[in-house]
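Try this one yourself first.
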């Protein structure tokens, strides 16, 4: 049992989060309490606090029947690799994270309206924090990577307007476009194969196609080097867990 007197929220208070948790656990959909919980457990600029992790198991227990709890628990997990200084508290949440992972997977199978948010939260339970933070719906998505050969910044576009690599010129737009080379399902591996498989399982064609391109290859418009998009993005952006 947490000693809330020693657990600070994102605004350095110790008394509000336990009161708010008791309110939302009361069975009624208390919109005001959920709004304040979000304010106290997640700060601007994607910061979380000790109270965020102490509250996480209780949020997970509510998550199967409450969309607000599911959303807030997911948003906390997506920020778990940040500079919060609460690594020991996060480790203590291992059982809750495992339970949440199974809950999210079941929810995805129902093809919910909040599919992408749930998918991103599921990625966070797998400690794929960089993908949880940036994965979009592939209608208007861009990823910036450096070419591993010549170091030029390459814009990767995956959306309804095209799937290409380019050099972005703020006057001319994306220039010297090169078509991306999507990975085939048989060639995908690791987290890319897993992500693609979940999207295919759930009939999310746009998402699965976008993932295939994201984990496929791109050609540098400057030097013609061919590189794997996801590998280069991961190398540049994956948080280092302490």
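Now uncover the answer:
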């Amino acid at each position: 049992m947490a000693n809330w007197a020693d657990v600070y929220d994102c605004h350095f208070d110790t008394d509000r989060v336990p009161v708010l948790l008791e309110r939302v656990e009361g069975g009624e959909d208390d919109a005001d309490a959920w709004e304040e919980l979000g304010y106290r457990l997640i700060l601007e600029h994607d910061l979380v606090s000790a109270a965020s992790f102490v509250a996480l198991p209780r949020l997970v227990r509510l998550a199967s029947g409450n969309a607000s709890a599911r959303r807030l628990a997911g948003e906390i997990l997506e920020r778990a690799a940040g500079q919060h200084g609460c690594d020991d508290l996060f480790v203590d949440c291992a059982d809750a994270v495992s339970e949440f992972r199974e809950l999210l997977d079941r929810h995805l199978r129902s093809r919910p309206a909040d599919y992408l948010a749930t998918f991103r939260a599921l990625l966070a339970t797998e400690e794929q924090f960089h993908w949880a933070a940036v994965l979009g719906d592939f209608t208007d998505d861009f990823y910036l990577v450096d070419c591993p050969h010549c170091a030029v910044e390459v814009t990767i576009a995956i959306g309804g307007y095209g799937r290409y690599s380019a050099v972005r010129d703020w006057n001319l737009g994306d220039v010297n476009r090169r078509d991306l080379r999507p990975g085939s399902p048989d060639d995908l591996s690791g987290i890319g194969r897993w992500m693609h498989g979940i999207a295919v399982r759930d009939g999310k064609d746009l998402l699965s196609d976008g993932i295939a391109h994201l984990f496929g290859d791109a050609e540098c418009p400057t030097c013609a080097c061919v590189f794997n998009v996801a590998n280069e993005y991961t190398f540049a952006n994956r948080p280092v867990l302490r």
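Discussion: The chain has eleven helices and eight strands. Residues 4-129 form one domain.
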